[in-house]
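Limitations

Structures in this collection are predictions, not experimental determinations, and the ligand pose is part of the prediction. Treat each record accordingly. The example that follows, with magnesium ion as the small molecule, is included so readers can see exactly what is and is not provided: the inputs are given verbatim, and the output is the predicted complex.
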Amino acid sequence: MIHIRSAGEIEKISKACQIVKETLEFIQELIAPGITTMELDHEAEKFIRSKGAKPGFKGVYGYPATLWISIDDEVVHGIPNNRKLQDGEIVSIDVGSLIDGYYGDHAKSFAVGTVDSKKEKLMSVTRECLLDGIDNAFPGNRIGDIGHAVQKKAESNGYGVVTELVGHGIGTKLHEEPQIPNYGKPGTGPKIEVGMCFAIEPMINMGTPGVFTKKDGWTVCTNDGMPSAHFEHTITITEDGAKILTI
Ligand code: MG
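Predicted complex:
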């Protein structure tokens, strides 16, 4: 079932989204060679709780932490640990929050120190993929139009689109209907309607699209060991098109 949210509900989702937006802004300032992913996780949890919210991912599907932190060939769902960030790495940070019964979800890839031009381009194209997807999220269009736009931008740059993981509806649950694939055919899939709220989150690989999950049961990595980037916004659909709530 795809929920059409009331103005009051959208206000609550928006509140959760503002908290994850501020959390990523706060964490961005801490990203530097030498800090561990666990330290970033603790800081994010303190920050979210200081806003009266709860970490959105903690406990969902049994996940133990606040952030998903994925480095270089790790695509998404990296578990924070004692690994120190190193100059030249891409670090992708995904954060959720829960407040007043509603979720917000947001992710960005960052450069640790200085990354090479290839990684820089991967991050900027992945961000453009997200924005192209959002541009296609308006009433009357279909979910497949979003994925098509994302895929077109990624593949025209020679990148691989991860198909095993998708964006999702969001509201009283972190993951709701509909699924938002990062690939698709124009004019296919559920119709986009005013009041829908969902997260679009392209995961784009510099090399081939294939991924596998590590033995920890969470961390998704590229098969070819090449880097990946991930950007995510939660949006709501208005008469005038998408409104980004995590901005
Ligand atoms: Mg998400």
